[in-house]
Amino acid sequence: MDFDRPEALLLLLPGVALILAGLWRSRPPIAPSRRSGALAARLAVFVLAVAGLASPRLPIGPPSPRPIVYLVDVSDSVPLAAREAAIRHIARLARMAEPRAEQWVVAFAGGARARRLGDPDRVEQDAELREWLLLPAAEAEARRDLEQRAKPNASPSSSSGPEASLKRIAALRQALDPGQTDLRAALRCLGGLPVSGRAPALVLFTDGRLTRPFDIRGWHALQKLAGTIAIGDTGGIDPGIEVESLSAPPYADAGQPFDAIVRFRAQGGESARIRLLVDDVPSGSTPHRCVPGSNVVTLPRLLLEGQGPHRLKVIVESPDDPEPRNNMGLALVHVGAAPEVLLVEGRRGLAAHLESALQVQGIRTERVDPARLPDRLEALKRFGAVGLIGVPSDQVTDAATEALLAASENEGLGILFAGGPHLAGEKSWRGRPAERLLPVTFDPYAPPTPPGHGPPATPDPSPPADTPSSPKPAAVEASAISLCLLIDKSGSMAGDNIRLAREAAIAAAETLEAGDTVSVVAFDVEPRLVLEPTAASRKDFIRDRIARIQADGGTHVYPALQAAYRLLRNDPAQARHAIVMSDGITQVADYRSLLNQMRADRITVSTVCVAADLTFDWTLMHNLAVWGGGRFYPALSFNEVPQIFTKETRVLVDGRARERAERERREKARVYASPPSTPPPSKPAAQAPPEIPLRITSDDEALTGLGNEPPPPVRGLLPATPRPASVTGVAAREDNRPALVLGRSGLGHTAAWLSDWSDEWGRPWLAWERFPAFSAQLVRSLLRRGPAIPFPGLVSAEIRGDRTEVSVDFRMAASQGSGRFTAQAEWRLENGAEHPIPLQQSAPFIVTGFFPAPPVGEASTLRVRLTDGNRTWAAPPLSVARAVPEELSGTIPTAFAEAADAGIPPATPMDAVSLPPDPSAPTDARSLPVGDLLLAAALFLLPVDIALRRLRI
User: Fold this and answer.
1) Helix, strand, or coil here: 484?
2) Cα–Cα distance between 885 and 615 in angstroms, integer?
3) Which runs of consecutive H residues, i.e. helices, occur in 876-930?
4) Predicted local distance difference test score (pLDDT) of residue 704
5) Angle, nearest 10°, between helix axes 591-600 and 618-627?
6) Mean pLDDT, the chain, whole residue set
7) CB under 8 Å to 305, separation ≥6 — which residues?
8) Is 396 helix (H, G, I), strand (E, B) or coil?
9) pLDDT tens digits for 438-458?
10) Two domains, one topology: 242-335 and 481-636
11) How many other CB atoms are found less than 10 A from the CB of residue 286?
12) Smallest Cα–Cα separation from 579: which of 655, 639, 630, 637?
């Protein structure tokens, strides 16, 4: 015997004790002859009541079999032959079920009806079932009977003849609505079935072509109602692989690498090869093992040469694919002009070696003297970067400084500085306005001393011998860092993207030091705390938690920022910082107010955004970093993400190290305030300065690929201190003096080379065989990132039948300006003429329009301009392509694709369908609840107990 509430039995022992005590102390006393009867009656009432509350169940038979429900699609898209076959397979499966198993049939289309299945051996002869599932045939047969009855020589029929059948069929047709296919109706009907006991097994017969949405959440709801699900395809279609899209950035600078992302669906298990063609020329291939449902593959770091549009074509090939015509994706990428770099040299010839190295690598240059340095923003627009090579600060005018600063911060212009010995004295940049352009601040310069020519060694400063020794300065503990990583785990992050995001988070955590803490929030439309604030020293635990992040869902950054704020707000760490990484469009929210609150609580935010197309809100992500007091890292490749995370974390760690060094310096200066005097140093003899060995200290993209080989030495370095938001890429091996410092200035990248590239200090570098590649890589890392970032809006285009719908959303621009905005758009086919697109307002600050869809195998280019009356912004060209005929698009039924994404086994032909396995077969027998009977017996004996105690007999 089992009990539903066995804890109620604990009342027995104390209850019996209380009954015994009460009976012996009863007033008036009970006669001894009646005491035993009263005791027995009261104990019986109490025991029966307690047993009834415990709800016992008496076994009455073997274990109950699992119910089975057959969902049959009877919409008009399913042919009668397929429905007839479904009846045969229901009969086959019904005979395979356990004896006494409940079996139900649910017919569904736009609505649903359910009926219990009768004898499994007579399913195919069940007239009512056949009428439900073969509704058009039943209606045609009833009409024939009615026509036959109308003939003069027809025999009379009963009143329940064809008229009644047609009336019944009409009511059934109205209830089922066969013109639609809605799995939600089947779900509602299934939830209302009087199925007893266990969750049923579900067998679904459908062609998978839904007319009403039923997404992955619907399939999860279906899984909760039905323990296991099997799907039989009534259409008999085996679409194999279907490419959904090829995403690539619509615009890229020459020499700028980017990612292309292939999204395709598969039935699962296929072995495929993904081939890429650029302008119809093969450009490599990669193998791939398909998974059921959605597959996302990233083709990393692609490079296109030559200005103008380039056609990317991807073909997913599989020997097992029965329909190869839907396996192609197209994209059009516009490559801008080869980057041009302005080299400004302080003396003739100082930039000659650098110019030659850049030209060898295909980077166009213009070399001028400081007098020709532009001092207007417009004059700087044609350059991707400006190199200030050995230029004295007094030759950089205030107007030129302001123009360079504005171009860097607002438009992404890169700035490169190279020093030299002539910048050590009066020509130094130390304290000058132009110093704001650089990622360093300069220190006073002391010339290097050749070996054997320095002043005599002096002892370390110490207190005089006749005074008590001063205490040594106490070690100053560095301020702790609390880092919160916000990782986008939306569905578009599937595949290599989420793997690289996990690697980036782990790399950032491992960059922290003892005493620091790290937390991780993964988000789609809702945030989820993956790693609570944890000591950075717990590396294995951190790796394990981060490795659990999987991709699914949509994207909403605001709740994730709120979660980070809650985590960091009460953290005692001195430095509290959040890094947001996302690759998709987020929802509108009051980000600025939230980030202002975070800044007020001394919490800073940086953003990392990766986008393979224009469906990303660059402007918002840039503003999040600006409002959050952090840094903005745009990237076109997910391979850059681990490096960016490490770089951003090192900014925090290096800033803490500089703070510690500064505190120690100040403490030492306070303790030893009066160092002993030393004799003046002797003047060294003229001799070449010693070489300073260098080492690479960062894996920034500017230094990627240099390997483990140490870089050449230099013969001199200008003394400088990196700014808090910068990274030291190359440093002196012995004393860690910075040689190359990399930083950001708004949207622009900056670099300071504290030696020179001439024969004075940099001769070993000029002789280095890898100098051309290094210099080109450094300059490319500084170049402005194309025009996608400044456009203050979102442009999208989607092919709908024979038209393409375009939408321009400029709400972000409207929130920052006060003018009246106007959008204009044009389209053209490849090598064709441009045509205007009429745009109409569909919502506040959103306009839409239509233009003809491109022919199969071709792409259209869309150009959009936005103006507020004073300024005009041009969006990068956007391409839309039709890779396959419309009749082959979407050949994998929606229902099957979403079901595979939900983890349900893929659809099979009906003759291959079997009853889904039972993962939790019960071992207990069927039982009868008797709790209510016991409570009724207790109530029946209660008057007997009262009579024995109260009545005088």
Assistant:
1) strand
2) 25
3) 894-901
4) 66
5) 20
6) 80
7) 254, 255, 335
8) coil
9) 999 998 866 655 544 444 444
10) no
11) 14
12) 630
Residues 3 and 47: their CA atoms lie apart, in Å, by 15
Fold observed for domain 242-335: Immunoglobulin-like (2.60.40)
Q: How far is CA 741 from the centre of its chain?
A: 31
CA distance 214 to 223: 13
CB 442, CB 430: distance < 8 Å: yes
Digit-coded pLDDT (tens) for 662-685: 666 666 555 444 444 445 555 444
Residue extents of the structural domains in the chain: 2-62+926-950, 68-147+164-237+893-912, 242-335, 340-445+691-704+711-782, 481-636, 794-875
Fold of 340-445+691-704+711-782: Rossmann fold (3.40.50)
Question: What confidence tens digit (pLDDT) does each residue in 705-729 have?
Answer: 565 678 899 999 999 999 877 889 8
Closest CA to 307 of 356, 260, 364, 360: 364
Query: 794-875 adopts what CATH topology?
Result: Immunoglobulin-like (2.60.40)
- How far, CA to CA in Å, does 839 sit from each of 241, 273, 652, 846, 860? 37, 42, 47, 10, 17
Region of poorest pLDDT, from 325-334, 510-519, 552-561, 779-788: 779-788
Q: pLDDT tens digits for 16-42?
A: 788 777 766 655 566 666 667 777 878
What is the DSSP pairing of strand 68-73 with strand 201-206? parallel
Token pair belonging to 508: 């950032």
- Among residues 817, 821, 880, the alpha carbon closest in space to that of 847 is found at 821
Helices 216-225 and 183-191, packing angle to 10 deg: 20
Q: pTM score > 0.85 for this model?
A: no
550 close to 502: Cβ distance less than 8 angstroms: no
- Spatial CA neighbour of 252 closest among 318, 333, 196: 333
**The pairing of beta strand 364-368 with beta strand 340-345:** parallel
CATH code linked to domain 68-147+164-237+893-912: 3.40.50
**What is the average per-residue pLDDT within 185-206?**
86
> What is the rounded CA–CA span in Å between residue 36 and residue 763?
116
Closest residue by Cα to residue 311 from 242, 241, 246? 246
For domain 481-636, which CATH number applies: 3.40.50.410, 1.20.1640.10, 3.40.30.10, 3.40.605.10? 3.40.50.410
Q: Are the C-beta atoms of 193 and 69 separated by less than 8 Å?
A: yes
Please work out, in degrees rounded to the nearest 5, the angle formed at the alpha carbon of residue 826 by the alpha carbons of 825 and 827. 135
Do 235 and 208 form a contact (C-beta atoms < 8 A)? yes
pLDDT at 862: 87
Using the predicted structure, report yes or no on whether residue 486 has a pLDDT greater than 90. yes
What's the confidence (pLDDT) of residue 745? Answer: 80
| Tokens coding 377 | 């923003």
- Tell me how many degrees the CA angle 556-558-564 measures, rounded to the nearest 5: 115
